[in-house]
Amino acid sequence: MSTVQRTWKVNGKPVRVRAPAGRRLLDVLREDLGLIGSKESCGEGECGACTVIVDDEPVVSCILPVGQLADGTDILTIEGIEKKRIGRLIQAAFIECGAVQCGFCIPGMVVSSYALLAKNPKPSAKAIREGLSGNLCRCTGYTKILAAVKLAASRIPAAKRK
Amino acid sequence: MTKRTSQSVRWVGQGMPRVDADGKVRGTTRYVNDVDYKGVLHGVVVRSPVARGILKGLVPDPAFDWSPIVLATAKDVPGENVVVMHDRTMPLIAEIGAEIRYRGEPVAVVAARTPELAAEAARRVRVEVEELPPLLTLQEAIAIFKATPEKLDSMKSQDIVKGDVATGFAAADEIVEAEYWAGHQEQLYLENQGLVVFPQKDGSILAEGSIQCPYFPVHELNDCLKLPPEKIRVRQTAIGGAFGGKEEYPTMLIGYAALPALKSGKPVKIAYERNEDILFTTKRHPVWVRYKTGVKKDGTLTAIECDFILDGGAYLTISDVVMFRGILHCAVAYRCENVTIRGKVARTNSFPCGAFRGFGAPQAIWGIESHVDAIAARLGRAPHEYRRQIHARPGDVTPTGQVLSKENGSTACLELALKRADFAKKLKQVSRGRLRKGQRKLYGVGLAFFAHGSAFTGDGEAKFKAKGRVELARLEGGKPVVDIRVSSTEMGQGVHTIFTQIAADALSLPPAHVRFPMADTGLVPNSGPTVASRTTMVVGNVVHRAAQDLKRQIEAFASLRFFQGAPAELRASQLVAPGAKPVPFAKVAKALLAEIGPASGFFQFELPADIRWDQATFKGDSYPGYSWSANVAEVEIDPLTCELEVKRVTAIVDVGRVINPTLAAGQVEGGLTQALGYAIMEKIGTGKNGLYDAARLQTYIIPTALDVPEYDVKFVEYPYSFAPPGGKGLGELPMDGLAPAIANAVEAATGRRLRQIPITPESIFAALHAPQGGTP
């Protein structure tokens, strides 16, 4: 398999990556870059535990070959979320609402929540459910996660709302 | 919520945020696959390709380079080839010449420097098996049982008898009889199974990983690894969900990894990917349950006769106790003088079934709660009115002869659920198979009412005597901290947080002073496995008492050291004595550590002396305490597509004293959602070739954020006063009753009773188009 060499922006910092084109983004993040916050659970893009944001869109990194990501790609992982104001609001709301149990799905949940609120800071209840429908959680029954996203949205300052 | 005061802060009862939440929302919590284990070999299990046969040979491919590979077979088992669970029938790994009993049964373990190389090596072992005809499903076993009951290959049988059912049936005006089925269910913890075994220089082993019950392997692998308990040390890493799936199974996994580890002297990690995890780990037991009930015209239940048969899979493992919990829940929630329950564990050539939240109770409650609705319908009674009449309450006698104490909120749960759900009014709006005016979908509402026994069955806790310590042994950043030392594991359910609250209250210190290190059998006494809805009630009491013991020691020291022998009390982070200036806890604790060394509070759990249980006759007090719940489910069914949507669920719960309302509500909502999957989505079986037919998340469907209904969860508190702070079991109860509540709602919507879960659009379609009566 051909090897690709890329320069991306990962959590705001330039990162040079050299990997086989077919190597999964999740493996590059976890193994090459040491960003272990993104998790692998299903390995086939069904559960969302590996969700990261690529050029403002949430993607499942377990089925994304790095060869598809051009130079200059902007990647945001759970490790970069807390540098964002909305990200911190989400993390605080998850703790406050009791939205966390085993925690294995939570990095992906937080990232998907960020992707949702960064685009739509005043989502409807339905939009929140849909925005998180690609992230499976087996512990919480989602109720407190949905409440946490709603709470975080309510705390986004009006000036930040587009 | 209790008000905080400077005098005495009560943390129990408050929705304190989780102590482990920060790392989890930031992604810094390390699960086993997040740890970089240097120099570790990766193990892969080589498995039988058929469900039944005689293992003839294992042939390594001569064209493959085996030099970097560790290949371990049954010949490498150091001791007797047996995993000692509840019998001694299951080998760790199949031997040449022995019978293979399920597809995927381990025949060898290979280990190599990379997972890829190990997987390749595993493929290069040819497994030769002389096939024998398998019996793959519970359906086949029940067909045998119905034709000739004694021909059923039952690995364990147990009856419960109260009164005389023949007399009861003779007194009855009506006999109501029906059968109910439920299939397998996968735990589907998001973090797959994984652990590492480190061989030690002294011949012992250390295992760490995603392990729910660290003390199990310490006592189950002695014979096969030829190691005494003190030479098997096990500790948990952060666990990404377990639900029983990491209860007994990791014992096997430790055994598999130990073979190449002991052979090579190198640490071996086995971590499953999702596909292997679904195909080759334990599931919830399928059940067939038949109820025959006698009832008088006035509604009195005169007899309950029940056959309860679980599919145990190929080996018993722990299925006897799952069946025991099942039969103990088959009729516990209703008044009846004459009861006979016959429980069995059928052997099939499928993967051994195992622990899963509820542990037999959801299967039993699925049957009885469907059946009580069927009885009510026969009598022309509304389901809630009928349950009001016959439900068990304090003073009633259970099928095993236990008198229910006053600490049972059964009536309160039932009444509050009916009120909050507005059940009587909604029952008048149900469709019964025909759209009413203004309805575009068939509407139904259904009720389930049930108990869940807390802690080990019978006198299990009396015999086990859970032990725990609370220690003042160290400084952290110059400040004294108190460590909780029990073997309860944090799997997401919140034990680290609620035990911190319990210890903080007992010590009169803020939670910031309390630590709860991960369970490690090298450091903690055996307070038992984290199972059976026992942790809050039993181990919570151990922590409470051990912390009180530590508090007394600190007070005794302070009295002599700071107050000239005057009695001192630790109160709100200060040591106070009459007429003296208070001394801060930190100062006292530092002096204690410096001058006399660590202090350790200890407690060993005991049951009240009047608890009696006879395992031989299955009579007596089957559980120390009971939690109660009533669930109401509202459903809508599209009359054309038969698509089923659960719109709203009311769950009223008595789990005694609620230690943390936020976490408790989260447990209920999560359990209800697993029950929702069990009821209407999660379908997996072994019918074709002994291999599970849904091996991935594309085919095994669990609820998403779009599937969950609106939940109305409320607690009523009837504390277990013998064991302060008075919690009863919570973890399993929410899994127990939603499936029959939904089935009862589907009956109300369609006029057809579905007697098999999961209830899918296909099964609703079949029922609606069947000549009468619903599905068999």
Write the layout of secondary structure elements.
The complex is a heterodimer of chains A (about 160) and B (about 775).
Chain A: E1 3-10, E2 13-20, H1 25-32, E3 51-54, E4 57-60, E5 74-76, H2 78-81, H3 85-97, H4 106-119, H5 125-131, H6 143-154
Parallel strand pairs in A: 1-5
Antiparallel strand pairs in A: 1-2, 3-4, 3-5
Helix pairs in contact in A: 3-4, 3-6
Chain B: H1 21-26, E1 41-47, E2 53-60, E3 70-72, E4 99-100, E5 106-112, H2 115-123, E6 125-131, H3 138-147, E7 154-162, H4 165-170, E8 174-182, E9 194-199, E10 205-209, H5 215-220, H6 222-225, E11 232-236, H7 249-264, E12 268-271, H8 274-279, E13 287-295, E14 301-313, H9 319-328, E15 339-347, H10 361-379, H11 383-390, H12 410-421, H13 423-427, E16 442-454, H14 460-464, E17 467-476, E18 479-485, H15 495-507, E19 514-515, H16 535-562, E20 569-571, E21 574-576, E22 583-584, H17 585-595, E23 599-604, E24 613-614, E25 619-620, E26 625-637, E27 644-654, H18 661-680, E28 710-715, H19 733-736, H20 738-750, E29 756-757, H21 761-768
Helix pairs in contact in B: 9-10, 10-20, 15-16, 18-20
Q: Overview of this structure, please?
A:
The complex is a heterodimer of chains A (162) and B (776). The model of chain A has no long low-confidence stretch (mean pLDDT 96). Chain A folds into two domains: 78 residues, Beta-grasp domain (Ubiquitin-like (UB roll), Roll); 79 residues, DNA polymerase, domain 1 (Orthogonal Bundle). Chain A has a five-stranded mixed β-sheet, sandwiched between helices. By secondary structure, chain A is of the alpha+beta class. In chain A, helix 3 crosses helix 4. In chain A, strand 3 and strand 4 form a beta hairpin. Chain A contains six helices and five strands; from the N terminus they run E-E-H-E-E-E-H-H-H-H-H. The radius of gyration of chain A is 16 Å and the shape is globular. In chain B, a hairpin with a 5-residue loop joins strand 13 and strand 14. A seven-stranded mixed β-sheet of chain B has the order 3-5-1-12-9-10-11, with helices on both faces. Chain B starts with 20 loop residues before the first helix and ends in an 8-residue tail after the last helix. Chain B is globular and about 80 Å long. Chain B is α+β, with helices and mostly antiparallel strands. Chain B is built from 21 helices and 29 strands. In chain B, helix 9 runs parallel beside helix 10 and helix 18 crosses helix 20. The N terminus of chain B is likely disordered. Chain B folds into three domains: 149 residues, Aldehyde Oxidoreductase, domain 4 (2-Layer Sandwich); 189 residues, Aldehyde oxidase/xanthine dehydrogenase, molybdopterin binding domain (Aldehyde Oxidoreductase, domain 4, 2-Layer Sandwich); 324 residues, Aldehyde Oxidoreductase, domain 4 (2-Layer Sandwich). The chains are: A alpha+beta (162), B alpha+beta (776).
